[in-house]
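Late entry, evening session. Most of the bench is empty. Finally got around to the prediction I had been postponing all week. Sequence below, unchanged from the version circulated by S.P.
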Amino acid sequence: MQKKARLPFQGMTIENWKNLGLACLLLFYLIFTIWEVASHMMCGQIGADYCDYWSAGKVANLHGYADVYNLQLIEQVERSILPSTSDPSRTAVVPFPYLPVFVLPFQFLSFITPEIGFWIWSVINFLTLILYLRYFTRNLNLPPPSIRLGLLLLVSLPVYLNFFSGQVGIWMAICMGEFMRACIHKKFFRAGLWLGGLLIKPQMLVLIGLVLLLQRSAKVLAGLATSSLFLVILSTLLSGPAGLVQMFKLWTIYANGQASNWVAGMMNWRMLGFHLSALIYPQTAWGIVEIGMIAMVILTLWVWRRPFAQNLKSFPVSVLGLLTATTMTAWHSHIHTAMILIPPMIYLYQAKSLPQKVLDYWAFLPAFIFLFVVFVPETMIKINVLTDLGNFLYFPIGASEFAVNFYLFWWAVSTSRQTS
């Protein structure tokens, strides 16, 4: 008798499906990245954020640190490196809204072309991430991340977008990891020093600062104040007081909304309000968002009101919950910023406290939403198969990351309540 042909994908286990998902996402990212490079989209899409940092470094070298906040000078440099396929009329100038001290590495990189510099920056970031996670886990007497866990992190949307755009999320993750490590070793002043590194995106410190104040964590706050003061003084010496004034003006522009903000693709309550206000009365939409934000902040402050030092066993869970709440309530919160969740997730996963399904949802769901709900329709629009869906096309990408972060937040709240 002739044997029946076995249909593909029959009898596959959950692990087999997850391995297939990993392979699909890795292949998609590879093809998509090669396509962007082959289409000469460097600084237009791929490496867009890195090129903005590169431009700030160039301006600092040519004109001084205070002028990195001069929008006209930044625009001139940014437009000079845009790909020829970009439409200048549809490309907004992207300011450098960071303290002057953070432009230093990009001053060195600006001596080489943006294309070569982007790949150097990417390799440095990749090696740093791998080596740091091994150091982080070993120092805390945990098994080092397996290759499969490393691949799971790499296919997650925050990590891929961080590499794709040339962002600084890896360095923020290191600061958060060292904050955790210092707290676990009961070196609270040192923990605060590392926390000051989040000043690169100060909105990430607002909720953490409120919790630390509520906990009266004097040593951590003293460390945070010390490193923050050091960074501000060094920045003032570099740019002068006028430079910092210009930076604060940029922060005001960012808070009020700016063309390059891309609110439609954020992962926060603001993104929900942006899309909801297009469907119902704006006042009603933003009212719902305000209630949601306030409720989340109150719940966060209530659940984690006790000092971390009192219960270091549940400390990583507290950090994860606090950071997920931060990603959702911060007014400016893009998907790549969720990389700060990696240290507490890795700790909890390697300590067998974080369920596999929680990590799987976080890694796979937004990535496949990006592939099937955003990338495919966007490609069809480019080849005139679909009509332009406008900003709503980007709702699924931000909403999916918001959803998995909310899931992590609720898991952390429930776990913390059970162990308190």
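Two things to note before I forget:
The mean pLDDT is 89.
The two ends are 65 Å apart (CA to CA).
Will write this up properly tomorrow.
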